From TrEMBL, chains A, B:
One of its GO terms (molecular function) is branched-chain-amino-acid transaminase activity. PROSITE patterns: AA_TRANSFER_CLASS_4. This is Branched-chain-amino-acid aminotransferase. The keyword Transferase applies. InterPro entries: Aminotrans_IV, Aminotrans_IV_CS, Aminotransferase-like, B_amino_transII, BCAT-like_C, BCAT-like_N, BCAT_family. Keywords: Amino-acid biosynthesis, Aminotransferase, Branched-chain amino acid biosynthesis, Pyridoxal phosphate, Transferase.
Length: 355, 355
């Protein structure tokens, strides 16, 4: 790590907030570590990244982020094992997806070393912020936004790439009840649904509020044309278990290529669970709920890891899922979390140890 | 106006930048007036708006605007006639649409008086910034964004409503050549396409760059499902003239309810131009271009007013539009601009004089 630290300028905070934090009572993403990585795109290129004290960002009111939503982000986690070793999970996948998102949003792509070395340097500086408690981790938020100015509706000429970190507890507590959406949509064919673009999330808030008012916690998004195909679960990918087969929709330009999603597919296959990656119709899920073959549904994503679903609403009818003893969800969650936190072997080579 | 000024706190700038500005050489939206209106949503309500010197905005790195694209905006113009009277054009329509956009983006709706009185006060303070030159105006940019903090993907608890103004020249110079899009899409059924949401614009930049690389200036968006229906022209609504009939698509949840669009429909009808508001297929436009009945196409929006199209590309073929002497575009542009700038009567009651 020392070579990397030498490469990236570090301006250390004179004080630390760490003693104000109760690591036994962490919420999700609202406590921030002492430092952040900042990297500016200007004069046509990405400038050298720096680690600086966590601090406010100052922008002109005409900065394009305020007007044209030009922003992308990633979600990652760092874990500490009992020996205080620090691990990341498939970080290169996040880097690659960030650039895929950036390209679609007309944001200049980032050099790999700026992302990877920047991230490792930041984690080395703030390693004391990585929680050791079961179920907690350091949530990592790399993001890029248009900081260039002007009201012309065109890509900015300046951007900021920032990584902030937040020691975090669980995203959801307990099972969630979901509403299969029949009116609103998350993404269009040929749109930006596959990208982690800021605007994809803002558009989900209002339909989710309507679902919450009806007693659900999350929306299951369906295709915008027929509302007959299940696509995503809020900010997660979705898996359905019918009998003993695990099914998830194929990625497309409407669906995020989730890293937890593809890891789960690989683990399930390796563990002998039959997996189908294919379009899922709402009608087959409703039918399976009625005839008892629908055993489980769960969301999968970095923030929530695996989020079991207790039931769903559709056409003004609620369908409860069975309470099983041994679920795919809990088995897969334990398997992936054990890999992430160095409690088990990592036959896939996904874990990256920082040293 | 004095009563309104008394109601809204004004903190005047100690200096002015106005002498640095060449009002005979204004670009679009990159020169900003001395003041701005700022209004914060916190503690569950919109606080009193204030006019303050144009100044940078400082936000926490976790502010939701950077992560979840929760932002909406409007575009308006103020005009000065030869006697230095100041006029707005249908400002209440912008206010109403801002709240329609906000609702869809889960942003708290704004009281009408905060918008209208705030705007009038700001324009009174910066009235010297309103250009008098032909073709120039004061572009007005009201916008709201999520300033509240946290990485949880949910609506913010704090927002900023700001109005900035920019003395501006033409948005486009000359006619534009457009590409009818067959791969990418602007919006989904049940999505946020009807809202002036930031994310709608960022998603257009990359496909527009691809079109520019092929020699076009703008993209004509089609429906995401079949690409068979013409929907919008970049940041504008689109009109097609076949023989002597003016046609524009109906508004929907995918298409912005443009104020210039609906004003043009009304003017055209009043002037005896046959107008059809109905779905327009790409195939009928191509067919009309081939048989010579396609006389004109133009975009319509606040920034560009009316932007004539010289030709379009579709299926790797370019179609040129005829060079007519008297066009609907130039007639309608003169008619609406004369109303806006107090050069003609305003039988519609659209012009609002500030006093």
């Amino acid at each position: 790590m020392s070579a990397i630290i030498k490469d990236i300028e570090i301006i250390k905070s004179k004080t630390t907030k760490i003693n104000e934090v109760d690591f036994n009572d962490l919420k999700f993403g609202n406590t921030f570590s002492d430092h952040m990585l900042v990297c500016d795109f200007k004069d046509g290129k990405w400038q050298a990244p720096k680690v600086v004290p966590y601090q406010p960002i100052t922008l002109d009111p005409s900065a394009k982020i305020f007007h044209y939503g030009q922003s992308v982000f990633e979600g990652m986690k760092a874990y500490k094992d009992v020996d205080e070793n620090v691990f990341l999970f498939r970080p290169l996948e996040n880097f690659k997806r960030l650039n895929i998102s950036s390209k679609r949003l007309a944001i200049p792509e980032l050099p790999e070393s700026y992302f990877m070395e920047g991230l490792k340097t930041l984690l080395e500086v703030d390693k004391d912020w990585i929680p050791k408690n079961e179920g907690s981790s350091l949530y990592i938020r790399p993001f890029i936004f248009a900081s260039g100015n002007g009201f012309h509706a065109s890509p900015a000429d300046e951007y900021k790439f920032i990584i902030c970190t937040a020691p975090s507890g669980a995203y959801f507590s307990g099972k969630v009840k979901v509403l299969i959406e029949q009116t609103y949509s998350r993404s269009a064919n040929g749109g930006v649904g596959f990208a982690k673009a800021g605007g994809n999330y803002a558009g989900q808030f209002y339909p989710t509020q309507l679902a919450v008012a009806k007693g659900y916690q999350q929306v299951i998004w369906t295709d915008d044309n027929t509302h007959e195909y299940i696509e995503e679960a809020g900010a997660m990918n979705i898996f359905v278990r019918i009998n003993d087969t695990l099914i998830t929709g194929p990625t497309s330009d409407r669906i995020l290529d989730g890293i937890t999603r593809k890891s789960i597919i690989e683990i399930a296959k390796a563990e002998g669970i039959p997996v189908e990656v294919r379009k899922i119709t709402v009608s087959e899920v409703v039918e399976a709920a009625k005839n008892g073959s629908l055993k489980e549904m769960f969301g999968a994503g970095t923030a929530a890891v695996i989020s079991p679903i207790s039931g769903f609403g559709y056409n003004d009818t609620d369908y409860d899922l069975p309470e099983l003893e041994d679920t795919f969800a809990s088995f897969l969650k334990k398997t992936i979390t054990d890999i992430q936190t160095n409690k088990s072997e990592d036959p896939y080579g996904w874990r990256v140890k920082l040293d």
